[in-house]
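TICKET #2291
ISSUE: user wants both folds in one file
ATTACHMENT 1:
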Amino acid sequence: MRRFRGAAPGSLLRCGVAEELAISDVARVFGLRASAIRYYEQIGILPPPMRKNGRRCYDNSALFRLAVVQRARETGFTLEEIRELFFGFPPGTPPPERWHQLSQRKIAELRERRKRLKLMETLLRRVEDCHCDALDECGEKILQPAATTKNQLRQIRTPAQRRPNRRERP
């Protein structure tokens, strides 16, 4: 198996030699650590492999399963969501339906995350223009009961409105 070191994903399958791979070979194909593969087995995402002389031996089905896991991870699915992909549907549910249901939830989650990120960016841009003399002054403005995000922006003093700090005082 030494000759497969650094093999590209899928290349072992094209060569027709994806039978009885050691855990290190499988890990190398997917760019994972062997401990990640053992963890996938432990949590049930990957079925336990055959063993020869106490060592794990993986076949094509493990590679196929890991390819799905890797694609799901690349698209942002958590390990719990990946478990749901494999085991969270009634038997006989076709893969397209599984992917569709999980993808719709993930897309809604991404939209919500995008909204939060835009708000964070807006707030960061506003604090970049802060002209407070002390952080307590910032906190006071933040806690003003009538202050909305837009009002907070209006309350930020321009350089001409603010008091000079100690270094700027004559």
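ATTACHMENT 2:
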Amino acid sequence: MTLSRSDGFRVMTTMDRESELELVGRLRAGDPDAFDAAHHAFNGRLYNFLARLSNRRDVAEDLLEETWLRLVKHAHRLRPDTRLGPWLFTVARRVHASYCRSRILEDSHAGDLIGLWPNGRPLPSPFDALEASETGRRVARAFASLPVAYREALLLVAIEGLKCADAADICDVSAEAMRQRVSRARALLARRLTDADAPILASLKEITT
């Protein structure tokens, strides 16, 4: 199995800038329907990110709830020109970092990767499709063994399709540092896999360049 931009695996939610700004305005005003709309657009993506970052479904669910609670609490303080996706991923990343500090969670922890996603998840990620095969399980285990900084770089750039500059803002690093993280993550992942997994690695290289 190979992954490419044409395979339809990208976990993206289409929202033009005008619609996003209108939604931000409604969130700032406390419109309950706006929170429902934001949840519908981003909940699956945020769960994907947090589950892969923590390698634990129960932890991801708790961190996801905290992420949405922070939107509810701080929505009135959003800037009118806020880019909602990057804002939410920044919050999710900080919530996860706070959890790691409080629990002293090791980067190398690899939980049960099979059946990680709940039923009814609206948008599949590349790893969802891959995990159905033995090759996919090898990739998932190798991915889970990467340090958190490398996992989040691949998740944001390869899976979510964010630009390196946006991913860099979320992770509070320079765009060049993010590009280096993505490159090093891809190289480290390659070293942990076999020659039989080369097509998948080639796809990740295509997506992240």
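RESOLUTION: both attachments delivered.
EXTRA DETAIL ON ATTACHMENT 2: Confidence is low (pLDDT under 50) at residues 1-13, 105-123.
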